[in-house]
Design goal:
There is one protein chain. The chain has a domain of 205 residues: Rossmann fold (3-Layer(aba) Sandwich), CATH 3.40.50.720. The chain has 12 helices and 10 strands. The strands form 2 sheets. A 7-stranded parallel sheet has the order 3-2-1-4-5-6-9, sandwiched between helices. Strands 7-8-10 form a 3-stranded mixed sheet. The longest helix has 22 residues. The radius of gyration is 19 Å and the shape is globular.
């Protein structure tokens, strides 16, 4: 009989939905978390308390484990979080792969970002997994650069005698249950009328529940060493803002700001707010990123994993409802 499945990052937005999918399938689960969640009493999962950066905790968490879903990390656009993101994404992944190899783990599914592959200047191309790494772009944003190095670290570590590695790269993840607000922040900003303008870029998004199901499929059917992009809709920011406005009744920004003005203005506003010790309504990184196109082609995941994103309007409606009535709605 195979051992349990370990989930790192199981207490986060995507992690909670993955646990639900695994529980539904009857999979024995072990969760590594820095602290026990308040909902532990209602979950059948076994919990190990510890950090992804602690080799001793990882040895305990990996003992007897057959497979691992690696979701642990930090989503942040704050440049002050750079060192922390590298510690979690790169060093933590290196320690996890070493512990997994020593424990005889069979397979790891690593959850990364579509932003390490699928971001372009003009949106004319919709990248798939064969697209060259857009290093010149993502080097501007510590989160995506740390995720790229995480992927490379995992590939190198798992090439040295296993485990098998499958990478899943999801786009902006929306839906109910984002208690920390890390993924649905921009929708909340729109509902709070904090965007005074509409950017000229484009966004790809996907439902968190569909990503959770795709992770399970990647564990079962993903090919070792392969990457899979997940995205359900590729929309301009104008379409994204307008659709949220239609569903929420909150008016979308009327003014569209050109990319060169937004990149310069976003930096100026960010600096001005921070100079007086205040948080800007839209930070510099968000303003700059919104001038690029984050479209992705999920055809490979559809063919090999059976991925099928639900209707985008359902995802947006459920996101809005959750944000207005509590993240778990």
């Amino acid at each position: 009989m195979s051992g349990p499945t370990l989930v790192t990052g199981g207490t986060g937005f995507l992690g909670r939905h993955l646990l639900t999918a695994l529980e539904r399938a009857g999979t024995p689960i072990r969760v590594l978390a820095t602290r026990e969640p308040r909902w532990r009493a209602i979950s059948p999962a076994e919990f190990v308390t510890g950090s992804i950066t602690d080799p001793a905790a990882l040895r305990t968490a990996c003992a007897g484990v057959d497979t691992i879903y690696h979701l642990a990390g930090l989503v942040s656009r704050d440049p002050d979080d750079q060192a922390r993101m590298y510690a979690l994404h790169v060093d933590g992944t290196r320690h996890l792969c070493a512990a997994a190899r020593a424990a005889g783990v069979r397979r790891i599914v690593l959850c990364s970002s579509s932003g390490t592959i699928a971001v372009t200047e003009d949106g004319r191309e919709i990248p798939d997994e064969t697209h060259p790494v857009p290093l010149g772009l993502i080097a501007r944003w510590p989160y995506y650069l740390s995720k790229l190095y995480q992927e490379r670290t995992a590939r190198a570590a798992c090439a040295e005698g296993g485990p098998e590695l499958v990478l899943v790269h999801h786009s902006l993840t929306l839906g109910p249950g984002d208690e920390r607000g890390s993924s649905t922040l921009d929708v909340q900003r729109l509902l709070d009328r904090q965007f005074p303008f509409t950017p000229t870029g484009g966004v790809s998004f996907v439902d968190v529940r569909d990503v959770a199901d795709a992770l399970v499929a990647a564990m079962e059917r993903g090919r070792p060493g392969e990457s899979y992009l997940l995205g359900a809709a590729n929309w301009t920011c104008r379409k994204f803002f307008d659709r949220i406005a239609d569903l929420s009744g909150v008016r979308a920004p009327v003014v569209t700001m050109e990319k060169h003005l937004l990149r310069w203005g976003g930096a100026a506003v960010d600096a001005a707010y921070r100079h007086v010790g205040r948080t800007p309504p839209v930070d510099r990184a968000t303003a700059e990123m919104a001038t690029y196109f984050w479209y992705c082609d999920a055809g490979k995941a559809a063919r090999e994993l059976g991925f099928a994103g639900r209707e985008p309007a359902e995802t947006l409606a459920d996101t809005i409802t959750a944000l207005r009535h509590g993240a778990a709605a």
